[in-house]
Amino acid sequence: MRTDLRLAWLLTSGSNRREWWRICLTVVGAASVATFGAMAAAVASISGYANLPVAHGLLNNPGERRGVLLALLLLLIPGLGLLAQCARLGAVHRDRRMACLRLAGAAPARVRRIAALESGLACLLGSVVGIVAVAGSVLVAGQPPARLWWMAAVMVAVPAAGVAVSLGALRRVVASPLGEVKLLPRGQGGGRALARGAILLVAAVTGGILALAYGPAGLVLPVMFGALLLVGAGGVWVSGGMARLAGRRYAARAENPALLIAAERLSADPWAAARTHAAVLLVTVVGTGFMGVRETLLDALSDQRLMTRSDLDFYTGGIDLAGAAILVGLLIVLVSVAVSAAESVAARRRALARQVAAGVPRKVLSRAVLLETALPLAPALLVSGAGGLAVGIWYASLATHELTLPYSALAVPPLMLATCLLAAATSLPLLRRSTQPTELRHT
Amino acid sequence: MNTTEPAPGQPLVTARELRKAYGSTPALCGASAELNAGEILALTGPSGSGKSTLLHCMAGIVRPDHGPVTYRAERLDSAPEERLSELRRTDFAVMFQFGQLIPELTTVDNVSLPLILNGTDRRTAQKQARTWLERFGVLDRAEARPGELSGGQAQRVALARALVTSPKAVFADEPTGALDSLAGEQVMTELTSAARESGAAVLLVTHDATIAAYADREIRLTDGRTATLEVSA
Questions:
Q1: C-alpha distance across the termini of chain A, in Å
Q2: Residue B33 · residue B209 · CB < 8 Å
Q3: Which of these, A258, A434, A260, lies nearest to A353 by C-alpha position?
Q4: How far apart are CA A205 and CA A200, in angstroms?
Q5: What is the ipTM for the molecules in this complex?
Q6: Residue B172's pLDDT band (cuts 50, 70, 90)
Q7: Interchain pair A101, B102: CB under 8 A
Q8: In angstroms, rounded to a whole number, what is the distance separating the alpha carbons of residues A417 and A424?
Q9: CB distance B61–A176 less than 8 Å?
Q10: Is the C-alpha dihedral spanning B86, B92, B93, B94 positive or negative?
């Protein structure tokens, strides 16, 4: 173990700037997951009625606390997505390194151990940062700290999740000292993936509705969380399937070189950004639905002339907090999109440098990188936006007994696409650096 | 497992009628080869003829779909992964055209790596590594990282890493493929002289006749089959 720890340290300390970015992002990803986990643990450890000076008393009653808890648990999903994305950042480079270790004689279990030590340490650091921040804030606010063992469980669970993600990402390299070079690409057809995703989505939505309508109160929270995890998993299949179908469709008909490059890339590796795009779809459904619900709620509140100022603050504060939570989720997702785009460029830097050396203009490659994000996301956002809009209209019909269109919700899908493209565009400076002729050197 | 050392000229690694396909693309269709102790054997043939796949099978990196690979009477095609890894740490060494050095490690740490994995302490491993780096004229680059080396220097470092464990067999897949002819010949001279001194067998994949001329024997592959056996070089 000491030798492996030394090797893990040698590999980490010898990392170049790009690798250090990956490590720092893993720490940030782990810190965000630990923060939400610790906040959820803190909220869950409050029992009965409590008089807490937080968000106009939003945490005072068990009913509202359940909602806050669900929101915090939901924020774990994009947080875990970011962590997975960070673990995969620089994967091709790291895959080669692990394959080198296998060639030098390291057995599969040993390579796993070294990889686990590398990722686990970064996640543990992030976890400690998150836990200390939450525990410190709770203590500074003069509130009783959450149950200690819950915090400890979160602190252990986050590095464990990071290690699991990292090992899952390396499974194909560990299997062969030649890395993925001789392995066949995954052959899941686009249509089949879409069908699987749709089945998962239908199962999740049906389960969620049934739990809300007929389930006992104690079961609603775990069922809703489970249903949303299923929605996320379904989103991954839908995103991957959509990317493969879009890639095939445009690759066959593209006249524009940037579109052709992007389509071929999507067709060859449709799963590269599927996790991130699934999180984008989830945030779009939740964001569009929230905008619809918010519009209805604010309209209803403005009609309540007898309501006291403190009651109004309670409700608007709750709505604003829910919006803030969605914005935090969006922020995490956008970081994931940026990381995913950067990973895509970093993984292909030599191939991209060869294309530039062969005369392909950088502008064409830049457009291709943006199209890789836009082509599968645009139709998926349309569908998920429609889903969220349906939730908004349904809620408005319950409140007002008439079908009204929440106009503010219509802006969410195009705004999501624009912000995702902006996030993907942050990888363009890396593309410029990666296409320098020096990248053609072999090491 | 047979632990007796085979005499020079006796079979060390043997492959018989190997078949291997990647998906629906056949790579080997009944290829055979025998690497004898202490000899330098070249596998030649056109691109896509299965040279590298045959080398990977004989080195225990890739498992053939059909046909036995034996190392001193031990079956490699059915050996557990841990045993194959152990062999790569002790009896076998593998060299490629490029990319076998870990960019994060210094040159001396790269060469020390197989020894460290074997349980040798780092100081002793580095001492041995420096001896090999000195022999191949790259000791002054001991603290450099692979990205700072020229192609010829990087291949000499890879050669030092291959030989640091005193392997019984060195598997070299186009080891000079990324070098100019002068650097390629230097690397080949160093590889063959070091192997002859230590008595290690070398299995060399190349499509370059000049490089194949360094071998004692040459086997040609065409379409995944050994077209010509035992051509004396």
A1: 29
A2: no
A3: A434
A4: 9
A5: 0.77
A6: very high
A7: yes
A8: 10
A9: yes
A10: negative
Token representation of residue A109: 């279990």
Contact B114 A105 (CB under 8 A): yes
Q: Per the CB < 8 Å rule, is A16 touching B103?
A: yes
**Structure-block tokens of residue B204:** 């060399």
For chain A, percent of residues with pLDDT exceeding 70: 87
Instruction: Determine if residue B228 is left, alpha or beta; phi over 0 gives left, psi from -120 to 50 gives alpha, anything else beta.
Output: beta
Q: Which of A96, A434, A11 is nearest to B98 (CA)?
A: A96
Cβ-contact A43, A134 below 8 angstroms: no
Kindly report which listed range (A306-315, A434-443, B112-121, B196-205) carries the lowest average pLDDT score.
A434-443
The Cα A298–Cα A319 span in angstroms is 9
Spatial separation of the C-alpha atoms in residues B7 and B49, rounded to whole Å: 31
Chain A interface residues (partner B, CB cutoff 8 A): 3, 6-7, 10-16, 19, 93, 96-97, 100-110, 176-178, 182, 184, 441-443
To the nearest whole angstrom, how far is the Cα of A311 from the nearest Cα of chain B?
60
Strand partners, B205: B43, B173
Which positions in chain A touch B151 (Cβ < 8 Å)? 442
Helices (H) and strands (E) in chain B, counts: 7, 10
**A297: Cβ–Cβ under 8 A, 6 or more apart, which residues?**
A315, A319, A399
CB under 8 Å to B42, separation ≥6 — which residues?
Answer: B204, B205, B206, B211, B212, B214, B215, B217, B218, B219, B233
Task: Please name each of the domains of chain B with its CATH number.
Answer: 11-91+168-232 (3.40.50.300), 104-166 (no CATH)
Q: Is the pTM of this model over 0.90?
A: no
Looking at the partner chain, which of A19, A104, A109 has a beta carbon nearest the beta carbon of B117?
Answer: A104
State yes or no: pLDDT of B97 exceeds 60: yes
Helix (H), strand (E), coil (C) string for A302-322? HHCCCCCHHHHHHHHHHHHHH
CA distances (Å), origin A127, targets A32, A123, A147, A318, B41: 8, 6, 17, 28, 54
